[in-house]
Design brief:
Elements: E1 2-6, H1 13-22, E2 26-30, H2 44-47, E3 53-56, H3 65-85, E4 90-96, H4 106-120, E5 125-130, H5 136-141, E6 148-152, E7 155-156, H6 161-173, E8 181-184, E9 189-190, H7 191-202, E10 207-211, H8 215-222, E11 233-234, H9 239-243, H10 246-249
Parallel strand pairs: 1-2, 1-3, 3-4, 4-5, 5-8, 6-10, 8-11
Antiparallel strand pairs: 7-9
Helix pairs in contact: 1-6, 3-4
């Protein structure tokens, strides 16, 4: 099978690529580093020649509602339209658990718009929603102000990006999902605690300060609005196992 991975150099996309290759499939990476711009569509149609399935793991790079919405919807439209022209059989889209439970949170509203546009296209769509990645605290720490890192207060069930990538690859080679699949890690955790554990493990000179996000969305975060529903697929490793593993060693903060 020939699988195209949009965002195939990113946090999750690289693991989709690795997993698909390990299963013996051919992989096409869709990204500007290889001359394909999924946002503008430049080079996309040619890159999808002979592709059976597209996996979309792209990220907007911004949390702002308008810009994120414009990015996600345009990418979904381009993947759908170019995929149809090239005879692609279906699209697998990576999304986030709990989108509807954080009203007013711009990035989540953008992801909801992405799901809607993807589902409205001509190609059948499988939507895989994941919880926050084990890599998430490191991403926040990397955006800190000197030795100070403001960590949102939220209850989450973190999952390894590698595990999500493997499930996306598995979904790509299987039948189209009849309903949205939720993927989460094995343990419920507090994000602030994870951030402090990472600082201690990495020996960083940083202070993690809890940041209660204001408004309805922030209240939902603190109450577990981003936790998966019953029936979610729970996969390891735990955060503690991950932090001692090879994937964590390559995380930059």
């Amino acid at each position: 099978m020939r699988i195209a991975v949009a965002g195939g150099r990113g946090t999750v996309g690289k693991y989709v690529v690795q997993s698909a290759l390990a299963m013996g499939h051919e992989v096409v990476v869709l990204g500007r580093s290889v001359g394909v711009d999924v946002r503008t569509g430049d080079g996309l149609r040619a890159a999808l020649a002979g592709v059976d399935v597209i996996v979309d793991t792209t990220n907007s790079g911004t949390m702002r509602r308008a810009k994120a919405t414009a990015f996600f919807t345009q990418v979904s439209e381009n993947l759908q339209s170019a995929g149809e022209v090239q005879g692609v059989s279906r699209l697998v889209t990576l999304s986030i658990v709990g989108l509807e439970r954080l009203p007013g949170f711009g990035y989540y509203e953008a992801k909801l718009a992405q799901e809607s546009v993807a589902a409205a296209g001509p190609l059948p769509v499988s939507i895989v929603r994941a919880t926050q990645f084990h890599e998430f605290p490191a991403q926040i720490l990397s955006r800190g102000f000197g030795p100070i890192a403001l960590m949102p207060v939220m209850r989450i069930r973190p999952v390894a990006a590698r595990s999500v990538g493997e499930i996306l690859a598995e979904t790509a080679v299987g039948p189209t999902l009849e309903s949205t699949l939720e993927v989460a890690g094995p343990e419920e955790k507090d994000l602030v605690t994870l951030g402090r554990d990472l600082v201690r493990k990495k020996g960083l000179h940083a202070v993690v300060i809890p940041l209660p996000v204001p408004g309805t969305a922030g209240k939902a975060m603190r109450r577990g609005g981003q936790l998966p529903k019953l029936g979610a697929r729970l996969v390891g490793p735990t955060f503690e196992e991950w932090i001692d593993g090879e994937d964590a060693s390559s995380v930059h903060v």
